[in-house]
Amino acid sequence: MNLKDRVVVVTGAGSGIGRATALAFAAEGSRVVACDVDQARLDTLAAELGDRKLLVKKLDVSDRLAFRLFADEVHAIAPAADVVVNNAGVAVGGTFLDTSLEDWDWLLGVNLRGVVHGCHFFIPKMVARGAGGHVVNISSILGIFPAPNVTAYVASKFAVRGLSLSLRQELAPHKIGVTAICPGMIATQIVADGRMTGTQMTARKTKVVDAFKRGLPPAKVAQAIVEAVRTNPAVRPVGYDAHVIAALQRVAPRTLNALAAQVQRRFGAG
Ligand code: NAP
C-alpha cells in the first residue's frame, strides 16, 4: 500500500508505541487521526504531526458511545479509514488471586473492548468502500507466552491475537489485511503508568520499570507496523525476545511450559 495521503487511525497515540506509530505514518505522508486519554500528550503530538494531522482528539477507547462519536467525526471528514492501529493498552501485574475485578474491568475495557470498538466502528466503512485497508491490533509477546503473575494482561493479549487471526480470515475477501503485532520488551511508560497488585509485585514495580527502560525503542515497533501494512503478516513479533518466544511456540511448545514454570519458581508470589 502506498501510504501517502492515506487515512491512518492510531489509538493511545499520546505515548510510547502509539506516538511513534503516528509519527512514522506521518513521515510516510499519511494523514493521521490520533486519540488518547491524555490531552497534554495529544497537544504535543498534534504540533509534531503538523499538516499530517487530520484529527487529534481525547478519547477513552473503552467508552463505547465516545468511540462511536469519534468514528462518526472521522467518517464526516473521510469516507473510510485506510489503516486502523488499535494500540491503546494498559498493564496490570499480579497473580490471579491478587487481581481485583475492578482491575480486570479496567484492563479488559482498554486492552480488549478498546480493540473491539476500533474494529466495530471502523471496519464496516472500510468494507463498504471496497478499496481494501489494514487493521493492526497490538497484542504482545504475552499474547504468545502465558507467563504467570500477569494473568489479566496475558488474557487480554491472547484475546487480541485470537481476534486478529479470526478476523483476518473474514476480511481477506474484502482485501483488508489484519496483523497482530507482538512486541517483546519496549521502553515505554506502560509499567510505570500501570497497576501492580499484591505485595510481591508492588515491591518489584521499581525493578520492572527499570528493566523496561532497557527495552527496544518504540520506533522499532512503529517501523514493524508500517512494514506489516505493506506485507500483511498474520502475526509480527518485534524484538529478539519476541522472535525467540514465537519460534519456540511453533517448534517446541513444551519448552515454553518449562519457561513459564521457571518464571513461577523464580518470581511466584507465595
Ligand atoms: P504507553 O507508553 O503507556 O502508551 C499507551 C498509551 O495509551 C498512553 O498514552 C495511555 O495514556 C493510552 N491509554 C491508556 N488507556 C487509554 C484509553 N482508555 N483510551 C485511550 N488511550 C489510552 O504504553 P505502550 O507500551 O506504548 O503500549 C502500547 C501498546 O503496546 C499496548 O497495547 C501495550 O499492551 C502494547 N505492548 C507494549 C509492550 C511494552 O513492552 N511496552 C510490549 C508488548 C505490547 P495514559 O498513559 O495517560 O494512560
CATH superfamily: NAD(P)-binding Rossmann-like Domain
The averaged pLDDT comes out at 96
Q: Report the structural category.
A: alpha/beta
Order of helices and strands: EHEHEHEEHEHEEHHEHH
Through-space gap between termini? 51 Å
Q: How is the largest sheet built, in terms of strand order? A: 3-2-1-4-6-7-9
**Radius of gyration over all CA atoms, rounded:** 18 Å
Strand element count: 9
Strand content: 15-25%
Q: Which regions have little confidence, pLDDT < 50, spanning 5+ residues?
A: none
Q: What is the CATH C level class, in words?
A: Alpha Beta
Total count of domains: 1
Helix content: 40-55%
Using the alpha-carbon principal axes, give the shape. Answer: globular
Biggest sheet features:
7 strands, parallel
Architecture, CATH level 2?
A: 3-Layer(aba) Sandwich
| Count of helical stretches | 9
Remind me, CATH topology? Rossmann fold
Question: What ligands can be seen in this structure?
Answer: NADP nicotinamide-adenine-dinucleotide phosphate
What does this molecule look like?
- The protein is an alpha/beta fold.
- Helix content is 53%, strand content 16%.
- Helix 8 (240-251) crosses helix 9.
- 47% of the residues are buried.
- The mean pLDDT is 96.
- Bound molecules: NADP nicotinamide-adenine-dinucleotide phosphate.
- NADP nicotinamide-adenine-dinucleotide phosphate (NAP) binds at residues 11-12, 14-18, 36-38, 41, 59-62, 87-90, 110, 138, 140, 183, 185-186, 188-190, 193, 215, 218.
In short:
The chain is of the alpha/beta class. It has helices spanning 16-27, 39-49, 64-77, 101-129, 151-171, 199-213, 218-231, 240-251, 253-267, and strands at residues 7-10, 31-36, 53-58, 83-86, 92-93, 133-138, 176-183, 195-196, 235-238.
